[in-house]
Design a protein that fits this description.
The chain is α/β, with parallel strands linked by helices and 381 residues long. It has two domains: 129 residues, Aspartate Aminotransferase, domain 1; 238 residues, Aspartate Aminotransferase, domain 2. Helix content is 40%, strand content 14%. The protein contains 13 helices and twelve strands. The strands form three sheets. Strands 2-8-7-6-5-3-4 form a seven-stranded mixed beta sheet, sandwiched between helices. The two termini are 28 Å apart. It is an enzyme of class 4 (lyase). Pfam families: Aminotran_5. Its cofactor is pyridoxal 5'-phosphate.
């Protein structure tokens, strides 16, 4: 089996799974309980929080645990909107955001908020000047992802941070779900970023756990109310085993980053160079610093993406039709549409997403099978 769908989810590290099992078995107390088992659970919870914060260069009081990226995004967008509603109701999100952000913004539009969408250029990057032109006195939030999940374009978070530097009343949220272990932390978690969303299963933790970074000086309304966990901002019994496993996975991922990224980028470059030789192939992603080293999206002229996905699956090679969250809905890649790619062409898009678990022998096998798939589609092309 060759797994090239790591942007959808990663295989948990064995070390993270061992941590999960050990904590679930031995430290099963509720952190909110007053007895010794509860105290033991609380100590591990706070140790995990501290480790995650230190790895990101932040303080422990700025890390809030969630169920994953979608909840973190929903909480950031909705929580900020309602917290700051007395000061304004204008929100800006980029036109290529993940549905967790975009659909949250659309819902807010039904609740009396006004949403503007910052456009992107033909390469999939937010147009910083046009975003600046959308800013108004009543703007309370700007949300832009760090790494686009469909084509891998690294968004200009630092440039946007500079634009917002003298606008302290505007909160800046970054969806960093695809960024961990793929681009330097400093490139997207700038001093101007107030909130950032993360999902554990994107960096070899287990599913169902993530976290939200909230700058200590910023306020946000709770998304979940109840027992008062997470400083009364996110009430529900903490997924302690998942949190401990996530802290372990984050450390392992960042420890490997320096050696892993050049390997991943080299694999992507080989695939990119080979696919670029075919006449009926359009490669939507690019190689270089402006694009994540792990994501490569392409299309075969006239062949729908799902057909290509299943053709590779017959050979036990697993890729996806861009965003996993939209693939079963049969929607074309929204990022490509925003870039001006015609709908029929966008419907051909498939995404390869690599990881340190992959190697060059798998790349060679993929390219061998690709040649066969390409030949079989000759009549359609």
């Amino acid at each position: 089996m060759i797994y090239f769908d790591n942007s959808a989810t990663t295989q948990p590290y064995p070390e993270a799974l061992r941590s999960y099992q050990e904590v679930a078995t031995k430290i099963f107390g509720n952190p909110s309980s007053l007895h010794g088992l509860g105290d033991q659970a609380t100590r591990l919870l706070e140790a995990s929080r501290k480790q995650i914060a230190q790895l990101l260069g932040k303080s422990a009081e700025e890390i809030f645990f969630t169920s994953g990226g979608t909840e973190s995004d929903n909480w950031a967008i909705k929580g900020l909107a309602f917290e700051k509603a007395p000061y304004g109701k204008h929100i800006i999100v980029s036109d290529i955001e993940h549905p967790a952000v975009k659909e949250s913004a659309k819902w807010l539009a039904t609740q009396g908020f006004e949403v503007s969408y910052a456009p992107v250029d033909s390469r999939g990057f937010v147009d910083v000047k046009q975003l600046a032109g959308l800013l108004r006195p009543d703007t309370i939030l700007v949300s832009v992802m760090a790494v686009n999940n469909e084509i891998g374009s690294v968004q200009p978070i630092q440039a946007i941070s500079k634009i917002l530097a003298n606008r302290p009343t505007i909160s800046f949220h970054v969806d960093a779900v695809q960024a961990i272990g793929k681009i330097p932390t400093a490139s997207y978690l700038t001093d101007r970023v107030d909130f950032a969303s993360f999902s554990g299963h994107k960096f070899h933790a287990v599913r169902g756990v993530g976290f939200l970074y909230k700058k200590v000086s910023k306020r946000i309304s709770p998304l979940l109310t109840g027992g008062g966990q997470e400083k009364s901002l996110r009430s529900t019994t903490e997924n302690l085993a998942g949190i401990a496993a996530m802290a372990k996975a984050l450390r392992l991922t960042l420890d490997k980053e320096e050696l892993a990224l050049p390997r991943i980028a080299a694999m992507k470059a080989v695939i990119y160079d080979e696919l670029s030789k075919y006449p009926d192939i359009r490669v939507f992603s690019e190689i270089g610093q402006d694009f994540a080293p792990n994501i490569l999206t392409f299309g075969i002229k006239g062949v729908r993406g799902e057909v290509v996905v299943h053709a590779f699956e017959e050979h036990q090679i697993y890729i996806s039709t861009t965003s996993a969250c939209s693939s079963k809905a049969g929607k074309p890649a929204g990022t490509l549409i925003s870039m001006g790619v015609p709908t029929k062409e966008a419907q051909t898009a498939v995404r390869i997403s690599l990881d340190d678990d992959n190697d060059m022998s798998q790349v060679e096998q993929f390219l061998t099978i690709f040649k066969q798939v390409y030949e079989k589609t000759k009549k359609v092309r």
